[in-house]
Specification:
GO biological process, one term: signal peptide processing
GO cellular component, one term: plasma membrane
Helix content: 55-70%
Distance between the termini: 10 Å
Mean pLDDT: 89
Bound molecules: zinc ion
Oligomer: single chain
Largest sheet: none
Number of domains: 2
InterPro entries: Peptidase_A24A_bac, Prepilin_IV_endopep_pep, Prepilin_pept_A24_N, Prepilin_peptidase/N-MTase
Keywords: Cell inner membrane, Cell membrane, Hydrolase, Membrane, Methyltransferase, Multifunctional enzyme, Protease, S-adenosyl-L-methionine, Transferase, Transmembrane, Transmembrane helix
Function: Plays an essential role in type IV pili and type II pseudopili formation by proteolytically removing the leader sequence from substrate proteins and subsequently monomethylating the alpha-amino group of the newly exposed N-terminal phenylalanine.
Number of helices: 9
Low-confidence stretches: none
Shape: globular
Amino acid sequence: MEWLQLPPSDLLASPWIMGLVGLCIGSFLNVVVHRMPLALERGWKQDSAELLGIEVDLPEPVTLSRPASRCPSCGHAIRWYENIPVVSYLALRGRCSACKTGISLRYPLIEIATALLFAGVAWRFGEHPVAWLWAGFTAVLVALAGIDWDTTLLPDNLTLPLLWAGLVASALGWTLPLSQSVWGAVAGYLSLWSVYWVFKLLTGKEGMGHGDFKLLAALGAWLGATMILPIVLGASVIGAIVGIGMKIASSLREGRYVPFGPFLAGSGLVMMFAGPERVMGWLGWR
Ligand SMILES: [Zn+2]
């Protein structure tokens, strides 16, 4: 299976420009990872209260832009020059300018990771506008991985648009042939759905969430049906290594499981960078 080839053009998709944009998008993704679960939870509480006809205390409404960012320990309002990706973290030496409480290293790390991924996309897809499309795909995966890691949720309002965007991009002739995309979505959903039910019937436990099916469906829509098995294999291997590592470091609390979504997302990105030719070669399918 070959991905569609588009004529080259150098429309603002050099690795440097995309890396710089990635740095800023990474900063935004930090906000999404932190706030989207809060906003969703508030909505669910409100819906449940209305359905049950009871009064509940709801937290302050949260959107991506409101309230303005504050230090979680002292409430110091973060000024624009304290919010420049990576630079501000280094200038503040990783501490709040008011109360000197440490700022999580995760913020600059997500910014740097997003910058590297965006630059990598420019390198992988050439200096072509379609690279921006793949950068968008990458950004949504970073957000999903972060949210799943923190909360074991893979929100529908990220997985489903990602799935549709993959199908539409393919229908417009920008990525892979449409049949590969459609069957990729179907195979992605049904494969994990089947594993889920077999596991549940055998053990009575739920091994993964429905969000995982939707995420793999989205990955299938972007990468094609032939990539589903390699993605799942890759995610299982990386997930097992990290899970065992965390058990040895005993940072895995009793009864808490390692979410599968970050590994699916990570494995999907590996397969995107490798491309179908190389992946099929790894599996000896050529
Ligand atoms: Zn502070």
